[in-house]
Amino acid sequence: MGLMTGTHPHPDEEAGARSTAYRRIREDIVGGVLAPGWWVREGALAEQLGVSRTPVREALNALAAEGLVEIVRHRGARVLPWTMRDVDEVYSIRAVLEGEGARLAAIRASDEEVQGLWESAERFEQAARELVDLRARGRGGDAAARGAVDAVTEANGVLHRAVLTAAGSPRLTVLLRSLSSEARIGQVFHHYTDADLTRSMVGHHDIVLGIERHDAPLAESAMRSHILAARHAAARSASDAPAPSTRGTAQIDRDRAREGWGRGQGVP
Amino acid sequence: MGLMTGTHPHPDEEAGARSTAYRRIREDIVGGVLAPGWWVREGALAEQLGVSRTPVREALNALAAEGLVEIVRHRGARVLPWTMRDVDEVYSIRAVLEGEGARLAAIRASDEEVQGLWESAERFEQAARELVDLRARGRGGDAAARGAVDAVTEANGVLHRAVLTAAGSPRLTVLLRSLSSEARIGQVFHHYTDADLTRSMVGHHDIVLGIERHDAPLAESAMRSHILAARHAAARSASDAPAPSTRGTAQIDRDRAREGWGRGQGVP
DNA sequence: GGACGACAGGTCGCATGCAATCATGGGACT
DNA sequence: AGTCCCATGATTGCATGCGACCTGTCGTCC
User: Fold this and answer.
1) What's the CATH class of domain B11-80?
2) Which of A5, A15, A100 sits opposite B92 (nearest CB)?
3) How far is A63 from A71, CA to CA, in rounded Å?
4) Distance between CA atoms of residues B192 and B236, nearest Å
5) CA A40, chain centre distance (Å)
6) What is the CATH number of domain A84-239?
7) Which helix (DSSP H) or strand (DSSP E) does residue A71 occupy?
């Protein structure tokens, strides 16, 4: 019944050279191909992507708005570092924003939405158990483990997004997306212990329970605790350097800036 | 000692054609020159501003990221409506975000910052008293009242920004700025009753007190209450339609879309 | 030897041009 | 009369070109 404001077509789900460039550059940043401190040249990227500088430019502006790169006038875009302090900051903000989302969801969620939340929680639990089993069997080697972790990550994202949808507050969704949290800490479940996974399962259960019972304070505090608890595991994952993968875009390596990390950070 | 991430040069404080266009378009939107539902033509704006379409385009992208306009591929940018529901949503989010900011400020604020906060609160109080006096004398007619309200608005903004600065979380600042809250509800103090102003003064006092005492829960809840209390006055101010002012940019009026409001809102 | 100033290289910011796409209006057909 | 289709006009999306600005280097002077 509520009137919806217009849809918000994120570059993630759009066509066109700009969105393509946006996705590709973001992948390269979170994947470690473009390490923090490096300068991103419009021209080089445009050539690599087979497009002109214009869409690349607009993509970089979008990434700058999300805090992934920093644009210096007449110099270009530089990949920003991602420290443990950033992880802490993002998780603190996620805690309050998603907490508010859970609170609203507890107030406004329909029965169908609650049903969907239970299913999402169930799917997360399945994926988590599968990962635990895989580890227990010692086969946590490569592809299988990676796939299982991806499944957990996906199920987790689905659940959290479903809560936000049930909250009915598009701005919350937009703000959380612009935190680039999902993008940069997508690998966090690699560092989850079995205990962490169990904790997540219980947390999700409490959250959905609070929403089902329309108990706003319970839903909010459960979500807050859930995210704050996840912060520690995330901090662990922040310490492993994003390996300069060998995948594609090798040409950029030549453009590696001589001045990295040290300079340009403490500019007042 | 804490390493600072790069500065975040918002278009507000930058030079160049893009930032100029950004500021101008935003002013026209919040000032009512560009009413919700209207299509904003790149070409027309570029001609008016005396620049090319490129910087106008980038400015519109930035405004879309802040939720002021909506960009439809191959059709252009349309000014989004601003309903009472939006006000509610923005204030709810502000409550939790600025509450978190106050909490962090209570933990991390230095003595100098606390001193600055007291001064800001004092300045707000002065401005508020001046406005009350002006109204009591019945001279709340035009220019004087407008100036007094502007002073209150400015002092309020200074205080809230100072809290965020003391919080030491640049992302909080960025997120709040991208809410376009300051931009669109800058006129809110016009609708403040004397009681509202008094309440604000007290609220500010409690917030700063909580920060000074390093009482994080107090600071957080004081800030939350302060903003949630302000929501009602803000809702009042949302109801007055932004009058299609006569100021400048008259040419745009011809481009007024035949299709406004109704269509394109409920797209799933 | 160190510091200052001019020069060169390179990149960005903006202007302009062209093609793809969408909305609109008229006409033909049912 | 109503509906479908196509042609037309307008607008965006992207490509390209040029000038402005910054950085780094070299030469000169103190």
Assistant:
1) mainly alpha
2) A100
3) 9
4) 9
5) 22
6) 1.20.120.530
7) strand A69-72
Asked if B70 reaches chain A (Cβ–Cβ under 8 Å), the answer is yes
For A124-133, letters b (16+ CB in 10 Å) and e give bbebbeebbe
| Residues whose CB falls within 8 Å of the CB of residue B51, separated by 6 or more in sequence, listed in order | B17, B20, B21
By the CB < 8 Å criterion, does B1 face chain A? Answer: no
**Domain A11-81: assigned CATH number:** 1.10.10.10
| Residue pLDDT, tens place only, B106-163 | 999 999 999 999 999 999 999 999 999 998 887 556 788 888 999 999 999 999 999 9
**Chain A residues with CB-CB distance to B93 below 8 A:** 97, 100, 169, 171-172, 175
Q: Does B86 touch chain A (CB under 8 A)?
A: yes
> What is chain B's alpha carbon radius of gyration, rounded to the nearest angstrom?
20
User: Taking a C-beta distance cutoff of 8 angstroms, is the pair A211, A116 a contact?
Assistant: no
Q: For B198-232, write each residue's pLDDT tens digit.
A: 999 999 999 999 999 999 999 999 999 999 999 98
Alpha-carbon gap, residue B205 to B222, rounded angstroms: 9
Q: Where are the alpha helices (DSSP H) in chain B?
A: 17-30, 42-49, 53-65, 84-108, 111-136, 143-167, 170-178, 181-184, 194-212, 216-239
Check the CA dihedral A30-A33-A39-A45 and report its sign.
negative
Question: CATH 1.10.10.10 residue ranges in chain B?
Answer: 11-80
Distances (CA, A) of B103 to A11, B110, B219: 34, 14, 6
Report the interhelical angle of A194-212 vs A111-136 (nearest 10°).
170
Write out the residue limits of the CATH 1.20.120.530 domain(s) in chain B.
Answer: 84-239
Q: Which residues contact A106 (CB under 8 A, 6 or more apart)?
A: A210, A211, A213, A214, A215, A216, A218, A219, A220
pTM: 0.85
Asked whether the beta carbons of A181 and A153 are under 8 A apart, the reply is: no
Give A 100-129 residues with CB within 8 A of chain B: 100, 104
Strand partners, B69: B79
Contact B184, B30 (CB under 8 A): yes
Q: B200 with B226: CB under 8 angstroms?
A: yes
